[in-house]
Each structure stands twice: as C-alpha cells, then as structure tokens.
Amino acid sequence: MPTAATRYYGRSVTSVRSVFRSSEGALIVLSVGIGIAAGLLTIFLHQTAHFLQSFLYGFAGNSLSASSRVEPLRLIALPIGGLILGFGTRAAMRRWRTPVDVVEANALHGGVIPWRDSVLVCAQTLASNGTGASVGLEAAYGQAGGGVASLVGDWLRLRRADLRTLVGAGAGAAIGAAFSAPLAGAFYGFEIVLGAYTPAAIAPVGAACISAVLLVRVLGFPAYVTALPGARAITGTDYLLYAFLGILCAAIAIAIMRAVTWIEATVRASPIPDALRPVVGGLVLIPLAIITPQALSSGHGALHIDLGATMALRFLVLVLLVKIAASSISLGFGFRGGLFFASLFIGTLVGQLFAGALSYVPDLPQLDPSDAALIGMAAMGVAIVGGPMTMSMLVLETTHDFALTGVAVVAGLCASTVVRETFGFSFSTWRLHTRGENIRSARDVGWVRNLTAGKMMQRSPDSVPASTSVAEFRRRFPLGSTGRVAVVDATAHYVGIVDTVRAFDPTLAEDSDIGTLAASDDPALRPADDVRAVMTAFDSSDAPYLAVTDEHGTLLGTLSERFVHRRYAEEVEKAHRETFGE
C-alpha cells in the first residue's frame, strides 16, 4: 500500500506536470531554467576539453590551435586518444545502439533523447577534441543542451510539439552560450534543430538563449569569435563579389562533405578493425599537426590569430588545405565531433584568400580581408551546417555592423541555394542520409513513421475460407450487412477481398467456391508500413481496400484508402496547429 507521503508526492508531480502541459508561460519559465543548465554544461565541456589539451600538449596560451609549435612527442596523444575512443565506443555499442543526436531526435523521435545517448556523444566528442583531433565541441554542446531539455521534458510528459520546442531551446542555448550570441543561438534552434520558425517556439527558444548567454557573460566565459566592425563602406559591387564568394564556399563545402564520406567509406572497407580506426587516424594527423598546429582541435585560437594579422597568401593556402585534410581525416577515421566551428575557420581562410586574389585582378574593387573573412565564415557555415539566419546573426553579434550583416545574408543565401540544388543536405542530415535515413532537416516527420498500417487497420475483419460456397456466403453476408469480405485459405493465409455485391451476381453458380472471386494481384500491406508507403500502395493498385498481413501472409486486418487519407489529413492538420501554437 502506498504511504501518505508517496500519495502526496504523486499528486504534486501530477500537478506540476499539468501546469507545464497547459501553460505557455510555464513553458517559458522552464526554458529559462533549461538555458541556464545548457550554459553551465557548455562551460563544463569547454573547460574539460581545455584542461585535457593543456595537460597533453602543455601549450602556453588559451588555445591549442593558436600555438606556434607543438612538441612532436606530445602528438602521440592523437593515436592514444583514438585508442581510448575506439575501444570505448566498441564497448558502448555492445550494449547500446547508435546514439540519437538532437537533429535526429526532433525529426524522427518527437524530441526524445535517451540520457545514455547524450552522455555517450559528449564523452566521444570530449575524447576527440580533448586529445587534439580536428573536430569541434559544438556537437557536444548542442547534445548536452538538447539532452537535458529532453530529459526534463520527458519527465514532465510534455506534448510532442512542446518537447521538440524545449529540445530546440536547449540546443540553441548551448550554441548561443558558446559564441556569446543569443540571436545566433536562437536561430540555430529554429533552423537546425526545429527545422522551422514557429510562432509557438519563439518565446521559449529566445528565453533559453538569453538566459544562457547572460549566465556565461556573468561568469566571464570568453566568446568564440570576436571581430571589429567592417573597415569600409559596402557598395553594390561588393554584394556581387560576396555573392560569388558564397557560391565558392558552397563548392568547397560540398567537396569537404563528400571527402569525409569517401574517407569514411574507404576506411570501413579496409581491414582496419573498428576500434583501431581512430588510432590510425590519429597517426595520420601527426604530420599535419607538425606542418601547423592550426590543424588541431576546432581552431578557435587559430581563427583569432588569422583574423587579427596580415597573412601571406601561400601560408593561408597551406593552412586551408591542412585544416580541410585534418577535419576530413578526423571524422572519416571515427573521431566524434562536428564541423560547426571548423567550417567557420575554413570560411575565414577562404574569405581572406578571395580578397587577396582580387587584389591581383585589375579594375575590380578591393575587398577588406577582415570583412571577406567574416563573410566567408558565414557562407561556409551556411553551406556545411545550414541556417542562413544563424550565421548572419553571428556576424551581426560579432561585429554590430548591419551593413556587413546584410552582405552575409546575401552570401549565405547564395551558398544555401547552391548546396540545396546540387547536394541537398547539410552535414548533419548528410550523415544521417549515409546511415539510411531520408531526412533533409529537423522538421518533424516522426509522426509519419508512427502512423503505420498496423495502427490504422481494421482488426479482425469479416473473413471466410476460400472453399466457402457462394450460397453459404450469401447466407452469412446478406446485402447491406457489409461491403466486402476477406478470403483466406485453409492455413489462414490471405487470398483476396470479395465485394459483397459481386457475390450476389445471379449468373454465379451457388455451389461454386467464393475463392474464385477473390483472386487478386493487389499488394498486401505489412503492419510496419508507414502512411506514405500505404498511400503509394493504394495509388499503384487502384484498389479501394487492401489487406494487412504478416511476413507469412497471415491476414491481420484490412485498410480502406478513404480512411487512410482522412487520418493523414488529420495528422497534417494537427502538425500545423502545433506549429502555430494552437
């Protein structure tokens, strides 16, 4: 018997849950708390990675990638980190499946992220970045913020739409905290994690991002990107040149994403065991790190150095090629992390090279290298990560220059259009695509997969054995009693469907088997077929009713095309209402 205290606790929890499920104001307050938690987790992850890098490489300064030189012997940390990552991941995968990240969770699982998945992704990313691999921590930041939001929202039993919003708020708050940029974080939540700008999500996502940024500023956490406003006025010709820079960044971004996939596929096809792939990748990274330490880690320190100094074009080309190679090798050989900040760093290099190359072209206006670096940063970020407004807001909050932000919007939209038309994916959705998931954004398509034939079918439909005579069929199913009857053989396997009216054709012999009327080439559905597969089957067969069978052909139920279309329309309308907060 439950005690009085237990009953009181249960009633209290139920009351709290009902408040957050029914009140938009309560959800905003909850988002503020999630934002604070995301900010704290961002600081913890950053400090942990910084401590690991400082301990392993003994660099003087604030960043590994800003070091002028790294002792070659210390680079043994790369294969050692790969060894820990490889065997640790193998041990985890024996017990768990592939972890769900925030984009996949919001697209397919209604925002549900198991806590083990968040811990595993953060641990893998820390092991990769902390030992110097050329990957960023942003994957861990977003996973931690979205993971804690999912955990809290799941405990509160929030509705599907509210849980997705809260996950977007947590992930956006973590990114906003990392860059000290609340608008960039909010648009990251909208564009990358939620997949749409929704009126119902504006206040919760904004509240979470603002609270996270205020927290990190109070605690003195440094911003990832700092830059001065534009050095010269922006002209109409500049817009055209920067638009071309956006297209150039899109081409480079597609090449990077394909290179990562090619290396990953090549490594998987090789005889290298899974657990040893990061070790080999770490060994391959050592010569790149000897060429320049800017190839290591995500590149925060290197970006600050390169933005604030005049670099020779040959050196910029060298750093660009080495950084692209290091990031592609790190991800292709199994290090965990993302290309978020690496894309920003690569973009600044492309922008500076673009401005430098124009200086050799007569009759063209000269671009300021710092401005070009920031526009290249935004365009490359859009091309790889996605989110034109996310990157534009990052430029705005970095420079406080509206004119330069307008150019960033143009370059970002050009990059986004080229990538969508020629490639179709951002890096996060491309990685899911290579695993077999056909999604192009974090928009909620999970409800489509949940609406299956097994859930929609009429169970225990009217059925008769195929050997039943027409006379017996007429006796059991008189006109008006039912529209159609399923026919099965002696082993209960599905044969076909008979329209009742057809069985009353006076030209039929009463002693003939009803099974002769049920022979059909119409496809049978499986219980796991989602609504899109079901609608495709109806379109291809042109039949108003289809049977649902198991893998052995045993009849489980029937489904009508009219009912399927009605249920699909209801779910679409429900999704629209949730989008607009109704």
How would you explain this protein's 3D organization?
This protein is mainly alpha-helical and about 575 residues long. It folds into three domains: about 15-220, Clc chloride channel (Orthogonal Bundle), CATH 1.10.3080.10; about 235-440, Clc chloride channel, CATH 1.10.3080; about 445-580, Roll (CBS-domain). About 65% of the residues lie in helices and about 5% in strands. The chain is built from 24 helices and six strands. The strands form two sheets. It has a three-stranded antiparallel β-sheet. Strands 2-3-4 form a three-stranded mixed β-sheet. α5 (about 115-130) packs antiparallel against α6 (about 140-155), α8 (about 180-195) crosses α9 and α14 (about 340-360) crosses α15. The two termini are about 40 Å apart. The model has no long low-confidence stretch (mean pLDDT about 85).
> Helix fraction?
55-70%
Low-confidence stretches: none
Largest sheet, spatial ordering of strands: 1-6-5
Can you say what the CATH homologous superfamily of the largest domain is? Clc chloride channel
| Morphology | elongated
CATH architecture of the largest domain: Orthogonal Bundle
User: What is the CATH top level name of the largest domain?
Assistant: Mainly Alpha
* Overall tally of domains: 3
**What does the largest sheet look like?**
3 strands, antiparallel
Percent strand equals under 5%
Number of strands: 6
Q: Cα-atom Rg, whole angstroms?
A: 29 Å
**Elements, N to C (H/E):** HHHHHHHHHHHHHHHHHHHHEEHEEHHEEH
| CATH topology annotation of the largest domain | Clc chloride channel
Pairing-aware structural class of the strands and helices? mainly alpha
